[in-house]
Amino acid sequence: MDTHSNKTSYKLAVLKPDTTYHVKVLTQCLSRLHKTNEVITVRTPEGLPDPPRHLQLSCDNSEDGTVDVSWKAPDKGHGLIREYIVESSERGDLDWMSQRCTSTHSEVKELQADTLYSFRVAAVTSRGVGNWSEVKSITPKKGWLLYLFEYFSFIGLFH
């Protein structure tokens, strides 16, 4: 960077979050350039992470009302991803239910079977919550154990 200035300070701008920079100052006095061997190391603070990618939803039909949610980490974490927030919302409901996890996979349980749910995920750094992933929807089904119980109750094996 060449500033050609007589200022005694300079502000570095447009630096990337969570990045280490090594800065060296050169001074010019009249027509002579003076070099220094001193290097200043600066690390920028963490930023907000990009959204998680490739959100995937699946139902485990052996368990009633459970959805497996998985995703890929953000392209740019802009720092250490401390956790993820997984949110689900029942169709037509403006409220989101949240749960936190530290891996890129989570199970959301105790959902109402045969009801459409929307899901989204966000990554969290020390700076805060990043943007949400795309929203995807799925309808959990009744678990096969519950179907068997209902069937055997219907034919009279269980009273």
TrEMBL record:
SUPFAM superfamilies: Fibronectin type III. Pfam families: fn3. It comes from the Eukaryota. InterPro entries: FN3_dom, FN3_sf, Ig-like_fold, Striated_Muscle_Regulatory. Coiled coil: none annotated. The keyword Repeat applies. Keywords: Repeat. Residues 1-47, 51-143 form the Fibronectin type-III domain. PANTHER family: FRAZZLED, TITIN. This is Sortilin-related receptor-like. The gene is LOC104951725.
